[in-house]
Amino acid sequence: MKSGRAKDVTIKAVLFDFDGTLADTLPLSFLAFQSVFRQYDRRELSTEELVARFGPTEDGIIRGHLNNQEQVEEAIRMYYRLYGEGHSQHVHAVPAIHEMLDELRAANLKLGIITGKSREAFQISAEALQLSPYFDVVVTGDDVVSPKPHPEGLLRALAKLGVRPEEAVFIGDSSADIAAGQAAEVRTFGAHWLPTHQSSIFAVAPERVFTDVESFVQLILAQGDGAPHRWLDWAKQLQAIAQTGLTYVKDVYDRERYEALREISVEIMEQYTLAGEDVIRMAFANETGYATPKVDVRGVVFQNNHILLVREKADGAWALPGGWADIGYSPSEIAVKEVREEAGFEVEAVKLLAVLDKKFHDHPPSPYHVYKLFILCRIVGGSALGGVETSEVGFFAEDDLPPLSVERNTEKQLHLMFEYLRNLDKGVLLD
């Protein structure tokens, strides 16, 4: 890391190692590796010997160190079977980790993972611990040529997020993590907050070692990029209080106070959103009664492993067909209606996939508090045809997505939808 670099640069992204930092999976990894080498090589490996072999993916470790090469593929399959089956007994979610990630997401920080695990092993753990929805980018050992301590994984994550090294921090539990972070010129911290970690003493000194997640969160939020969004949240709450108060108020002086409160909320929102004052005032004038979140419904349609998107006339970018929920329609009816009107297809609703709070995702600031419902639909008729608000209709592969209308959906959200294509039994995502 460059010496003397200022530490008051606004933090925009937080990058994590996985094993030993976000998930206490190391004991299970040790157990699975030891079982494999015992079964196929008739030899015992200590945890220290295994840690010394870490760097490559699980497949790479077994291929590189198993003497019984004739059965190496069988040994790899055994590892993943043991690793997957062992989560229910040996790996449990850590509430403090989820609370930390919730706070960082609420502060509108971008989150990423750089792990030496294979993509398959990471997905097993991330789904078991319900960690996938939090992250904007995940770089696994399968995605790099040079694993940690080389900085390739971190540099890939930074490029994907569009963040400069000085705008990010990285935290991990091993000496390789610290070396990789410093080589990427990212502020780098050590994590000793889970029961098991790779390095009790770091070969190179991190900026600081954290033994509890609360202290780490405090440091990040104090230097994070979330202050404008916290102001926006407060403005929305003021607007909700004012709107509800104006609905039930009887005293003329209290009415004046609630109207003044609404004026304050309008001024704050004008500062922190792209909407002008007139647009905000008109939107609020149409909102009466007890204040509640607005509901946006998106239809998720797959065909030949491609996802249906429509091109919005408003901004020329692409989105899942959908829009505000209309009075008198159920959520599934809205999804069916929006797909028909915006894409031309007749569909039937199959399953609710996700209910997401827009403020926890990387959308542009908005005056509204919005819940987004994603509903899986199946084509039963019709053909591709744009509508009043859409100019084009297309199906896209996960690795070939067009420019997205981020006001409506983010790239991360589309990747989450593809996870359901791979695993239809996956539970509903919340928040």
From TrEMBL:
Domain Nudix hydrolase: 292-418
Entries under Gene3D superfamilies matching the protein: 6.10.250.1120, HAD superfamily/HAD-like (3.40.50.1000), Nucleoside Triphosphate Pyrophosphohydrolase (3.90.79.10), Putative phosphatase, domain 2 (1.10.150.240)
Keywords assigned by UniProt, alphabetized: Hydrolase
Single Gene Ontology MF annotation: phosphoglycolate phosphatase activity
Superkingdom of source: Bacteria
Gene Ontology CC, one term: cytosol
An individual GO BP term: DNA repair
NCBIfam families: HAD-SF-IA-v1, HAD-SF-IA-v3
Protein name (database record): HAD-IA family hydrolase
Annotated source species: Paenibacillus cremeus
